[in-house]
Design brief:
This protein has about 190 residues and is of the alpha+beta class. The protein contains 7 helices and 9 strands. Strand 6 and strand 7 form a beta hairpin.
Length: about 190
């Protein structure tokens, strides 16, 4: 399959990178804004793909070199003709103080992406809103909650455990003012 690197979508790139790492026996989990892009069908578009992996950076560098990506900074990888860069964040995968225990697998024409669940993606965005008062992260969390089934009770409990029940109420109030078309609750 020929890849048009200049026009590649973030989900397709995530699948290609995940497949390459898996071929090399390396684990990876897509986190951050790329999850938002994938879950909202690019209503929000991240400029990078954040991944968590327990693999050694040397192994990751070799695998990504096979795709034409080179290491630019300590954990950043670029390909000159690709609109996105790839960044590896240090493990373990967590949202706030809570470690990630489950993931979602999404099959694409380029392979399977392993990423945060929609509920954990919302928690991830809310963590940025809670801890850094990032209004864009709040909007991203709302977009994912609108587009995907989430477990609002789990997010409410997590928010209280993080010490931000008031900021959760702001998120919940904003979410409740929106149409309910796809806002089912999942486990």
């Amino acid at each position: 399959m020929t890849i048009d690197w200049k026009r590649i979508g973030i989900g397709d790139l995530a699948a290609i990178v995940t497949r390459k790492l898996t071929e090399k026996g390396l684990d990876s989990l897509v986190v951050g804004g790329a999850c938002v892009s994938i879950y909202t069908e690019n209503r929000y578009l991240s400029g990078d793909i954040d991944l968590v992996s327990h693999a050694a950076l040397k192994q990751i560098t070799a695998a990504l070199a096979e795709l034409g990506f080179s290491k630019q900074q300590s954990r950043h990888f670029v390909r000159n003709d690709c609109p996105f860069f790839i960044e590896f964040v240090s493990p373990p995968a967590a949202v706030g103080k809570e470690q990630i225990r489950s993931t979602k697998k999404l099959r694409t024409k380029f392979g399977t992406i392993v990423l945060l669940t929609p509920t954990d993606c919302v928690k991830d965005r809310l963590a940025a809103f809670f801890h850094w008062s990032d209004p864009q992260a709040l909007e991203q969390g709302i977009m994912v909650a609108q587009a995907q089934p989430i477990n609002l009770k789990a997010i409410k409990k997590w928010s209280a455990d993080e010490g931000y029940p008031d900021k959760f109420r702001l998120f919940s109030d904003r979410l409740n003012r929106l149409p309910r078309k796809r806002r089912q609750t999942s486990t």
